[in-house]
Amino acid sequence: MRMSNMHHFTEHHRYVTYREFSLSELDLKMLSHVYQPMVGAFAIGMYHLLHQHVAADRTGYSGIDAQRRLFMLLGLEPSEKGRTYFVEQTSKLEAVGLLQTSRIMLPDMDECLYEYELQPPLSPNDFFETQHLTLLLRDKVGKYAVLSLREQFCTSESFDLASWDAHREDISVPFYELFRLNTQVIDFELEQALQEVAPSRSAQSAQFAQKPDAQDLNYADIITRFPKQSLNRRFVEQLRYDKEGMGMINYVVRKFELTLQETCRLLDEDGVFTAEGSIALEEMQHRAHLHFRQNKRRSEWREREQSRIEQSSQPEEAHEQEVAVQMEFYVEVPPQFRDKCDVHQYNMMLRNTPYTLMLEKFFPGAVPDSFLDMFTKMDLNYKMSDEVINVLIHYLMTMLVQGAEQRLNRNFVEAIVSNMLVKQVGTYEQAVMYIRQQAQVNDADRSRTGGSDSAKSPRSRSRYNKTAKPAIPVVQRTGTGGAKLTPEELQRARDLARRLDEGRV
Questions:
Q1: Which of 149, 231, 244, 285 makes a 20 to 30 Å CA pair with 13?
Q2: Helices (H) and strands (E) in the chain — how many of each?
Q3: Main-chain dihedrals φ then ψ at residue 383, nearest 5 degrees
Q4: Hey, which residues does 18 pair with through a beta bridge?
């Protein structure tokens, strides 16, 4: 139990106990032989006392009472010393997983209510498979005592059952082989009645699960995982009563899909809090966005690598039946394929060939990895079909052959793919119509800029998509050649040149 101020935990505060189990003989033996050496007899006695607050044949909540009664039953003084000792004993139970303490702030009343939720002891197999509990028990009673306790909680198998040659066959009958339920009729009244008579705790958890804010983080989730040596620890502790600050954190968590660990790491960074201790929302969103983009790239890379591993481990399956292409959706054969196939063969190849094989046909050797990765991302991450990717490959390769100045870099291809995804291009026919529309738009742009030469000019646009300096017209020579001068005109020209040399003009 974390308690920074003992004035927040007194005998005047009220408490309630909750449990969803009942102790069996095996559980009682585990408490007395295994848990008691670790936490002490007083803590186990407190556990039994809290367990008896609810009737043995029932589960749920106990009555609400003041903690003064609990102190008197345990023989503790209602003083600071008694409260400190009570907190110490409950902390031991919480550490070994037998108790969970919560402080409930009541909005209508200016006080808080303490809830002690009991947890059942682990079974012998689960306990001795938990390393930190086994090591703690070893430190308390010794190694040989641990081995002796382990043998006391289980019976050994007979020799025949323990034989490795014995074959075990499951002959159990499943539920639906023996029973048939009437699923045609849905009894809404029964479901509603069952929920109404259920414990209030279960009803509240079901109600919160239906709300979209059920995954919101609370202060306890963050502070229990936040490092104590962090410089931002004091700012995080101020979030206990800062509902606005927690709301801003949950807003960023939902917006960028952050986990609890990523949220704690983000709050531990410099600049997330202002000098006054409030949340710097813009800075936090900026850093959360970086986390989101990085996680997105990692997940896409993992998805592509997983697909490659699965494809390499599985044998190649027979290709599905080929799909014909209607004549109105035929595309022209690019120069690379004019000597290899006709227009019918080329369009059938675009429609039915995987994009990986289609790329290999455009390159004399191996396909560059950077080029292949772009289309792999479209297939695995953007979920584009092979036929649409093939039409896109045809469109890009045709642009290069026609002498387009635009390089096929990643940003240029991503812009085209984004436009196709926004327009929901998902079939071969839609992809062909898209590239035809783009070709018409490009022709219209070239005609407006004064022909193909001006459209190809690399200086028609500046770096920031602004018009560059206007082209200065140059005087062109007219006619095929200059006319011959008469003797008089030639003499006047010589006289003018002589005067210029003498400086008289």
A1: 244
A2: 25, 5
A3: 60, 40
A4: 61, 117
Measured between alpha carbons, how far is 392 from 431 in angstroms, rounded to an integer? 8
Residue 261's contacts (CB-CB under 8 Å, 6 or more residues apart) are: 225
Determine the length of the chain: 505
Q: What is the pTM of this model?
A: 0.43
Torsion angle (degrees, nearest 10) of CA 321, 326, 327, 333: -50
Structure tokens at 72: 């008197």
- Please give the structure tokens belonging to residue 375: 């289309």
What would the pLDDT profile of 369-418 be if each residue is shown by its tens digit? Answer: 777 778 887 887 788 888 888 888 888 888 776 655 556 777 888 888 88
Residues 6+ apart with CB under 8 A from 300: 377, 380, 381
Cα 118 to Cα 138: distance, rounded to the nearest angstrom: 25
Under 8 Å between Cβ of 393 and 358: yes
SS3 of residue 91 by DSSP: helix
List beta partners, residue 277.
none
Query: Which residue type does 474 have?
Result: V
Is the predicted pLDDT of residue 10 greater than 60, yes or no?
Answer: yes
β-partners of residue 406 are none
Output DSSP code: residue 331: -
Number of Cβ within a 10 Å radius of residue 180: 7
Q: Is 162 helix (H, G, I), strand (E, B) or coil?
A: helix
Distance CA 89, CA 83 (A): 10
| Beta carbons of 355 and 375 less than 8 angstroms apart | yes
Pair 37, 140: CB distance under 8 Å: yes
Burial class (CB in 10 A: 0-12, 13-18, 19+), 50: buried
Strands (E) across 321-443 are located at: none
- Helical ranges in 142-271 per DSSP H: 143-152, 159-162, 175-178, 188-197, 200-210, 219-223, 233-237, 243-256, 260-267
